[in-house]
Design brief:
It contains eleven helices and 15 strands. The protein has about 325 residues and is of the alpha/beta class. The strands form two sheets. The protein has an eleven-stranded mixed β-sheet, sandwiched between helices. A hairpin with a 6-residue loop joins strand 2 and strand 3. The protein is globular, with a radius of gyration of 19 Å. The structure holds threonylcarbamoyladenylate (TXA) and magnesium ion. The site of magnesium ion has 3 residues, from loops.
């Protein structure tokens, strides 16, 4: 079991500086620290230290072709790892700190292992006082994927991190459950391309910088983001999406053959085990991964009710499509 340190998620007098200093030392010494962000927990290492970043790939069992996001305190530090443009500046002013990752032309300081050999680098400033305090105290940009074994459901609390990674991580900063609940939006600059959907919507980005091409599906010309190649966000249990409102009938049909869990947001049912999520997109996203983690251990099959077709559900729908894909 790794060392887990509680740290206050709110910062009335600044976050606990002793704990942050201890975690920052682990990062500077080349170790791995799991830390909270507003989206999901990240598994962090010094982005300028190739050996340290290599340990992230080993701990996660992550394919070396899948590059990492570099976490920074803001635009100034982002400009030390990537080529900073007026467009990047405009986006950062509007959305940072926050769940928007920008893919920029890289600078040579970044370890090759971070970018999987690409000539671009992904950067974001997370909107979480603990994450920002850690990066500032470490004094280096922090490369961090989600803090789970590769391909598994991302962690939205410290318990998920410990269950997935165990002592493959040196230290876990526990600030309770995350707010957003799904991973950041990923946007490539140059010709603007949306590589991953998230809480920051395409409409909001377009209102800031103009037209953005959707590139969230690997195309015939090959993936624009290496992560698109991989099965993602999936629980161990078989996950089946059913029409909105059809969840209870489906678990009843399965009940005797399978240990089936149910995730609803519309229908009501007495089925047990069951997680009922809020029926608004933000609330649903916040609770989705915890629901999957909770039911995964106890069930062979998880039945989840599909979400509505609207644009405001796009990011959640994307995660469900990837998680239910074989
Ligand atoms: O919310 C988040 O983004 C979380 C927290 C910890 O910040 N992090 C996260 O990291 O979800 P990860 O490694 O699970 O996902 C990073 C995604 C992958 O799909 C990866 O392929 C893509 O970003 N990516 C990273 N660098 C890239 C690059 N240079 N070009 C294109 N895609 C890149
Ligand atoms: Mg991930």
């Amino acid at each position: 079991v790794p060392t887990v340190l509680r740290v206050s998620p709110v910062a009335p007098n600044g976050v606990d500086s002793e704990t942050i200093a201890q975690a920052a030392r682990v990062i500077r010494d080349g170790g791995l620290v799991a830390f909270p962000t507003e989206t999901v927990y990240g598994l962090g290492a010094n982005a300028l230290d190739a050996d340290a970043v290599g340990r992230i790939f080993v701990a996660k069992g992550r394919p070396a072709i899948n590059p990492l996001i570099v976490h920074v305190t803001g635009a100034e530090q982002a400009a030390t790892v990537g080529h900073w443009t007026p467009e990047a500046q405009r986006l950062a002013e509007q959305f940072w700190p926050g769940p928007l990752t920008l893919v920029l032309e890289r600078r040579p300081q970044v370890a090759d292992v971070v970018t999987a050999g690409l000539d671009t680098v992904a950067v974001r400033a997370p909107d979480h006082p603990v994450a920002l305090a850690l990066i500032a105290a470490a004094g280096v940009p922090v490369a961090a994927p989600s803090a789970n074994r590769s391909g598994a459901v991302s962690p939205t609390c410290a318990e998920h991190v410990v269950a997935s990674l165990g002592d493959r991580v040196d230290l876990v900063l526990d600030a309770g459950p995350t707010q957003v609940g799904i991973e950041s939006t990923v946007l490539a600059l140059g010709p603007l391309r949306l590589l991953r959907l998230g809480h920051v919507s395409r409409a909001a980005i377009q209102a800031c910088v103009g037209p953005v091409v959707m590139a969230t599906q690997a195309s015939d010309e090959g993936p624009t983001s290496p992560g698109q190649l991989l099965r993602h966000y999936a629980p161990h249990a078989r996950l089946i999406a059913v029409a909105c409102g059809d969840g209870p009938a489906m678990v009843e049909a399965l009940a005797d053959r399978d240990r089936a869990g149910l995730i609803t947001h519309r229908a009501t049912s007495a089925h047990d085990p069951q997680v009922r999520l809020p029926s608004d997109p933000e609330g649903f996203a916040r609770g989705l991964y915890a629901a999957l983690h909770q039911l995964d251990g106890a069930c062979d099959t998880i039945i989840i009710e599909s979400v509505p077709a609207g644009e405001e559900w796009a990011a959640v729908r994307d995660r469900l499509e990837r998680a239910t894909r074989d």
